[in-house]
Amino acid sequence: MSLAVLYSRALSGMEAELVTVEVHLANGLPSFTIVGLPETEVKESKDRVRAALQNCQFDFPARRITVNLAPADLPKESGRYDLPIALGILAATGQIPADKLAKYEYAGELALTGELRAIRGALAMTYRAAHSGRAFMLPETNAAEAALVEDAIVYPAKTLLQVAAHLAGRETIQPYISQPQTIAPHYPDMSEVKGQEQVKRALEIAAAGGHSVLMMGPPGTGKSMLAARFPGILPQMTEAEALESAALQSLDGSFDVAKWKTRPYRAPHHTASGVALVGGGC
């Protein structure tokens, strides 16, 4: 078999679009080409994949290798495609069976030793994968975060060798079992604020009615102090709210599983620009 097809995910804001990874081997001068609008870190996966396969004692084919990341008009970024590309080469060369590839979606950055490194956006990708009916194979360090998605089946892997052994049926990877979060979120207490009765009353009304609040005043009057305590009087987050909040934090790698269902709070300096608040880039 000279063609292998696998599935992964691309992050586009909060969305995690399905990406079909197609690996084809053809006769001709040895080459390794990745198409499908890959950014620099995706193009660099060629060297990581080659070194990882060789250091894991797999045969790297001296043939014309073409990797297509479809759809072609969707930008692809980060090293999350290392794992599906490497598995596609192994399947196309017959070093692992291809009959189980379609049961999973894959994401993971490869070290040159074949170890799997953490990726960004694991929660957002797993949320979409759970609705597609496929399980998700990803680095072990992302398993606790990804398993927060209800009904998601997450297979944590440490190395490329472990994933290959699982697909070949030699060594089964057990699905990750999510540990229930029993620790209540901790917020600064509103009772610690002395005075400011009118403002505290306004915040209570806003929390009860789901209203927005705009506080204006000179520095030092207690705006940030009150705002930091505002999440503590809000209702507990629902599963949908917690997933949406965690998925946003997962995009930049700042999500902490220990803060599951904790309402986020940021305190930017009053001189911060709009780019500093929302992030730059395209």
What form results from the Cα inertia axes? elongated
Helix content: 25-40%
Can you tell me the CATH architecture of the largest domain? 2-Layer Sandwich
Largest sheet: 4 strands, mixed
CATH topology (fold) name of the largest domain: Ribosomal Protein S5, domain 2
What is the number of helices?
Answer: 10
Number of domains: 2
> How many beta-strand runs?
9
Average pLDDT, rounded to a whole number, is: 89
Terminal Cα span: 39 Å
| Parts with pLDDT < 50 across at least 5 consecutive residues | none
CATH domain class of the largest domain: Alpha Beta
Radius of gyration: 23 Å
Strand order of the largest sheet: 1-2-4-3
How would you classify the helix and strand content by structural class?
A: alpha/beta
Structure description:
The chain has 282 residues and is α/β, with parallel strands linked by helices. It folds into two domains: 3-168, 2-Layer Sandwich (Ribosomal Protein S5, domain 2), CATH 3.30.230.10; 190-278, no CATH class. 31% of the residues lie in helices and 18% in strands. The chain contains ten helices and nine strands. It has helices spanning 40-43, 45-55, 82-92, 122-132, 143-146, 160-168, 197-209, 223-229, 239-251, 274-278, and strands spanning 3-12, 15-26, 31-35, 64-70, 104-106, 109-110, 116-117, 135-139, 154-157. A four-stranded mixed beta sheet has the order 1-2-4-3. The protein is elongated and about 80 Å long. The protein starts with a strand and ends with a helix. The model has no long low-confidence stretch (mean pLDDT 89).
